[in-house]
Amino acid sequence: MSDLQQLFDNNARWAEEITQREPDFFEKLAKQQVPEYLWIGCSDARVPANEIVGLLPGDLFVHRNVANVVLHTDLNCLSVIQYAVDVLKVKHILVTGHYGCGGVRAAMRDAQLGLIDGWLRTIRDLYYDQRDHLALFESEEERVDRLCELNVIQQVANVSHTSIVQNAWHRGQSLSVHGCIYGIKDGRWKNLNVTVSGMEQLPPQYRLRPLGQA
């Protein structure tokens, strides 16, 4: 038996269940992709994007990486954002972290892990910047969870500062960037109430004029 046979069997049952509920689901799905949401989340296997928010395939465009980081030098993530915003015309970008994130925890410690150390550097910088605030929390778990929230807030800002998102606003496109966090221990998805929906919410130094405007 193939090592993957159980997964193929699971897939067959899943496809059959959906087809029984909605016989033409996959036929319609194959013809178009019109999600209203882009999910930017962590690669952690315990954080399944569609299941958390109860959406079917086709409803959620997804990008995941370790610790849900958005860097202005990451062409992979920026390409996903650009396609979602400019082509799919999503209305909401959901930056979603999760409590107890291993990447965030690693950024708070001095152990070397390899290539990922460079990837987590911006979270380590955030940890240093917020060291006085984080020192107010008694336990390591509380500090990790708070830094998970702060990391989401920072990534919401990073997404909002991109020319991709700002050009959408210049065009009058309806687009909001939300910061959310997921609790692995209770399955709850929480709004951090840091939504950015327009240029006026950005610090002046990050606001970009429309392309070609002097």
From TrEMBL:
PROSITE patterns the UniProt entry points to: PROK_CO2_ANHYDRASE_2 (PS00705)
Catalytic activity reported: hydrogencarbonate + H(+) = CO2 + H2O
UniProt EC number: 4.2.1.1
InterPro entries, per database record: Carbonic_anhydrase (IPR001765), Carbonic_anhydrase_CS (IPR015892), Carbonic_anhydrase_sf (IPR036874)
Xref: SUPFAM superfamilies: beta-carbonic anhydrase, cab (SSF53056)
Required cofactor names: Zn(2+)
Top-level enzyme category: lyase
Pfam assignment, any one: Pro_CA
Keyword presence, Lyase: yes
Swiss-Prot/TrEMBL keywords: Lyase, Metal-binding, Zinc
Family: Belongs to the beta-class carbonic anhydrase family.
Functional summary from the UniProt entry: Reversible hydration of carbon dioxide.
Name of the protein described by the UniProt record: Carbonic anhydrase
The organism of origin for this protein: Metapseudomonas boanensis
Taxonomic lineage: Bacteria, Pseudomonadati, Pseudomonadota, Gammaproteobacteria, Pseudomonadales
Gene (name only): can
